[in-house]
Design a protein that fits this description.
Layout: H1 2-34, E1 38-45, H2 52-57, H3 74-90, E2 97-105, E3 111-119, E4 125-132, H4 139-143, H5 156-172, E5 179-187, E6 190-198, E7 204-211, H6 218-222, H7 235-247, E8 251-259, E9 267-276, E10 280-289, E11 293-305, E12 310-320, E13 329-338, E14 347-363, E15 366-384, E16 389-403, E17 421-434, E18 445-455, E19 465-478, E20 482-495, E21 510-512, E22 526-529, E23 531-542, E24 547-559, H8 576-581, E25 588-599, E26 602-611, E27 626-632
Parallel strand pairs: 1-3, 4-6, 7-9
Antiparallel strand pairs: 2-3, 5-6, 8-9, 10-11, 11-12, 12-13, 13-14, 14-15, 15-16, 16-17, 17-18, 18-19, 19-20, 20-23, 21-22, 23-24, 24-25, 25-26, 26-27
């Protein structure tokens, strides 16, 4: 009885396992086919003017490869056929067709072979382009706005876009009521494109009406609009006015629409529609980086103080480079900004600041730390020369106090830094041209800055020196969303007059090393110097989701003076012992890679820099290979 029971139980368990296996197999089979059959091959026939690879690149229906399984969806293939036809039409094949020639399945319909047939037809080229009806604006002026050229394949979309480009030329000249249509006639593979223009007459501005404002007064809005009643309408000035309104920081949305109600009288009214931002804003921030380690910020911002359009901002920063030493940087700022200084389009600002920081000091045999307290005020005036170019004049009055040095010296006069309170007065000029886009994560454009500063001399104060810095960065986007970023920075400083012997103050000289200069080295490891030279090259490329990768090369140093730069400093093949003997003056090279994740203010990055020159330590071993750097935002 017991044996029969065990036998029955074994049979039952075996049967259950077989049924469960069959059920699991069925479920897996259904799961495999639920997303459609696997695409084994995609072929395109009938292609002669382009490569099959080019046409397949337009398709989302792709064949499976190693570690990449692609499943077939007929709706996606139909969309691919439309994409192929659109591509041919853009290249002048006006009668091109694409169809499914064959779908071959295996017996279980788990795999499919796709064949697409393309009928290209004849290619149509642009034989001639004519402008009809234009009297006020000549052909050569209008022709500069056309992207369709004689001899190129006919692209109907470009012809349509060029029609709007022609209208933009007329709108900039005040012909807001101009009407432009187009005709295309084709014969024997050659097309004639005609643009028929009805110019009308130039329109004058009638009224300017402001809508949507609540807390911002209409006069504040109206002064940013560069068109007045009676002026000739110009689309370019409408766009300029819109940008001026955005620049105030008061609005999250701005629209300026011309109204055609006055068409009979030859005038056009402007309707300015705005959506205001919050006028008051409190901000908090916590971060960690190689330069400051832990960092916290608190800020308060009022964008429309006393309904005057003036702005005030308060900001506090607390940071610690070394946790065992408590806060190593404390800073407070207050800035008041007037965008219409003296009733003109000038941006004036008054800024007050106070900062206390723990700084490193290194000069010959003396090394240590000291506390640097800086209290001062800036007065600045900025003029926008164009949408991308700005000129700024600034005057700074500053009290500097150096205290609590961690070293002892017999003669403090030998130091490049005064262990006492000093007053510095300086004036500077900044010329900046910024065509980067977008701002936080540039994909193109460039940034050039010239800063010339003179301290002391006619301005008085305890230190007299001149300081000039130049920086240039260029961003080049190419296939796949990758960006090559190039940067060069050069700095020069020299004392004069009563400071000729003491030199430029320590805290105003140049340093190199760290996350934004030469990675693989500590922050400000090299310097101080009166001459700085840096070159940075980065390749930034997308990985997946919001992650980005970086590879980079950093080159540079901070020399005591420009006269200390020697050709031999640039040698890359230097023995560790030789490099140790001239480490301060030698050019530093580092290469590395980084990983970042995109945030609203640019990528948060971790970079690892490898030193290509390494000196020999006193123990006989070579210094470390490199180091990590943590930052928010790009190095430049």
């Amino acid at each position: 009885m017991h044996a029969n029971t065990m036998k029955t139980l074994i049979i039952a368990v075996t049967a259950a396992m077989i049924l469960a296996s069959s059920f699991s197999t069925a479920r897996c089979s259904r799961r495999r086919t639920a997303g459609g059959p696997v695409i084994k091959e995609v072929r395109v026939e009938g292609v002669t003017h382009f490569s099959e690879k080019k046409i397949k690149g337009l398709m989302r229906t792709k064949e499976s490869k190693f570690l990449r399984t692609k499943r077939f969806r007929e709706s996606m293939l139909e969309s691919d056929l439309n994409s192929i036809v659109a591509f041919y039409e853009r290249n002048g094949f006006l009668n091109a067709q694409a169809e499914i020639a064959d779908l071959t399945y295996d017996d279980n319909r788990e795999r499919v072979w796709v064949l697409v047939r393309v009928t290209e037809g004849a290619q149509t080229l642009v034989g001639s382009i004519s402008l009809l009806g234009n009297n006020y604006i000549k052909d050569d002026v209008l022709g500069k706005s056309l992207t369709v050229k004689v001899g190129q394949p006919l692209n109907r979309l470009k012809v349509r876009d060029d029609k709007y480009s022609l209208y933009a030329v007329y709108a900039d000249k005040g012909f807001v009521f101009a009407s432009i249509t187009h005709e295309i006639e084709g014969e024997n593979g050659e097309a004639t494109v005609r643009y028929i223009i009805e110019e009308g007459g130039p329109a004058a501005i009638g009224t300017v009406e402001v809508r949507g404002n609540n807390r911002v007064s209409k006069p504040l809005i109206r002064r940013e609009v560069v068109l007045d009643p009676g002026d000739t309408f110009a689309r370019k000035k409408v766009l300029e006015s819109q940008q001026h309104l955005y620049d105030t920081g008061l609005f999250k949305d701005v629209e300026i629409e011309p109204s055609a109600e006055g068409a009979d009288s030859g005038s056009v009214d402007l309707i300015v529609k705005v959506k205001e931002r919050k006028m008051r804003e409190v901000s908090f921030g916590l971060g960690y980086g190689t330069r400051d380690e832990a960092r916290g910020t608190v800020g308060w911002h009022h964008r429309n103080l006393w309904n005057s359009g003036n702005q005030i901002e308060l900001r506090t920063i607390l940071a610690s480079k070394q946790f065992d030493k408590g806060l190593t940087r404390k800073r407070g700022d207050m800035a008041l900004t007037d965008r219409w200084l003296f009733g003109r389009r000038l941006v004036g600002a008054v800024a007050l600041f106070i900062q206390e920081s723990l700084e490193d000091y290194k000069q010959e045999e003396v090394e240590g730390e000291y506390t640097l307290l800086r209290i001062g005020a800036d007065l600045s005036v900025k003029k926008e020369l164009s949408r991308s170019t700005r000129l700024t004049f600034k005057y700074t009055h500053e009290i500097v106090d150096v205290s609590d040095p961690t070293w002892d010296v017999e003669d403090p006069e030998d130091l490049r830094i005064s262990l006492d309170q000093e007053v510095n007065r300086s004036a500077s000029v900044l010329i900046e041209r910024d065509t980067r886009r977008p701002f936080f994560d540039p994909q193109g454009g460039s940034l050039t800055r010239w800063i010339a500063r003179t301290s002391g001399g006619v301005f008085g104060g305890d230190n007299s020196y001149n300081k000039l810095t130049w920086s240039w960065a260029r961003y080049l986007r190419f296939h796949g969303g990758s960006v090559i970023a190039l940067s060069t920075r050069i700095g020069w400083a020299e004392s004069f007059g009563k400071s000729s012997e003491e030199g430029v103050p320590e805290y105003e000289r140049f340093f190199a090393g760290g996350s934004s200069t030469i990675r693989g080295y500590d922050e400000q490891e090299f310097g101080p110097g009166d001459f700085l030279g840096l070159v940075n090259i980065e390749l930034r490329f997308p990985l997946f989701w919001k992650f980005v990768g970086v590879s980079f090369l950093d080159i540079g140093n901070a020399w005591p003076t420009i006269r200390d730069v020697r050709r031999s400093d640039f040698d890359l093949n230097v023995s560790p012992d030789e490099f140790q003997s001239r480490r301060d003056s030698d050019v530093k090279y580092s290469v590395g890679v980084g990983l970042g994740i995109q945030t609203p203010v640019g990528p948060a990055r971790v970079d690892y820099g490898v030193r290509l020159k390494r000196s020999r330590l006193d123990s006989g071993s070579r210094e470390s290979l490199g180091m990590f750097h943590i930052t928010v935002g790009h190095a430049f």
